[in-house]
Design a protein that fits this description.
By secondary structure, the protein is α+β, with helices and mostly antiparallel strands. Strands 5, 6, 7, 8, 9, 10 and 11 form a 7-stranded mixed sheet that branches. Strands 1, 2, 3 and 4 form a 4-stranded antiparallel sheet that branches. The chain contains 6 helices and 11 strands. It starts with a helix and ends in a 6-residue tail after the last helix. Helices cover about 30% and strands about 30% of the residues. It folds into 2 domains: about 1-60, no CATH class; about 65-215, Nucleoside Triphosphate Pyrophosphohydrolase (Alpha-Beta Complex), CATH 3.90.79.
């Protein structure tokens, strides 16, 4: 067993620990349902060199690109978070009023950085003075193609209103401002469960001492 594990580790060292392209055939989609987002079914054939082809049927919620923003007031050492009701969270844990960071889907051909600026305006009432792209994740690749790109946004927290959200989209977001220490402590004490929020705060905890460097490298947000 040890010898086999060593061979696996050697292969990973050689190829790198990274997602890779697979030899796969995917059928055209069949629409299973279409509500807020389309829900599609695919037949998949995974070609394997050392074994017979693996055939699967998989359903995918087509969610697309998302921009997520960690809004920081560098001068005050504060972060802007928001509260919003999420039905799936209510069904899963009973705690439907989630603490979140700014996040939303791109509109049409909108760039992800433009979406980041727009979502800040809509959800917390202010557009960052500067934005810098951080990293991207697939939060739930087993069921959806949602692809989230995270940004660090530098704002003036004194301009944040009490409420945000778009009335025509039936949104109700309630921004609030806390010290960065308090946000990281909430993460450490397992008080928040939103996946984007957890990921962003973990990044912040690791990079907090370099925020000024990110500020200096950040670009003005897209109009």
């Amino acid at each position: 067993m040890v010898r086999w594990r060593n061979r696996i580790m050697a292969a990973e060292d050689k190829d790198g620990i990274a997602d890779r392209v697979m030899d796969v055939a995917v059928s055209p989609p069949v629409t299973v349902a279409k509500g807020y987002l389309p829900y599609e079914r695919y037949d998949v054939a995974i070609i394997r060199d050392q074994d017979e082809t693996l055939r699967q049927q998989r359903d995918v919620l087509r969610a697309g690109r998302v921009a997520a923003v960690l809004p920081i007031d560098l001068g005050r050492d504060e972060i802007v978070l928001l509260r919003q009701f999420r039905l799936p969270a209510h069904l899963a844990t009973g705690h439907g009023e989630m603490v979140e960071i700014v996040a939303g889907r791109t509109d049409g051909d909108e760039s992800v950085i433009a979406a980041a600026a727009r979502e800040c305006r809509e959800e917390i009432g202010v557009v960052p003075d500067r934005l810098i792209e951080l990293y991207s994740v697939l939060p739930t690749p087993g069921i959806t193609d949602e692809f989230v790109t995270f940004f660090l946004g530098f704002i003036d927290s004194s301009k944040v209103p009490l409420r945000g959200g778009l009335a025509d989209e039936h949104e109700d977001t309630r921004p609030f401002i806390v010290p960065i220490d308090a946000a990281i402590a909430a993460l450490d004490q397992a008080q928040v469960f939103n996946g984007l929020m957890v990921s962003a705060l973990q990044w912040l905890a690791l990079h907090r001492d370099r925020l000024l460097d990110y500020f200096e490298r950040a670009a003005k947000p897209a109009a």
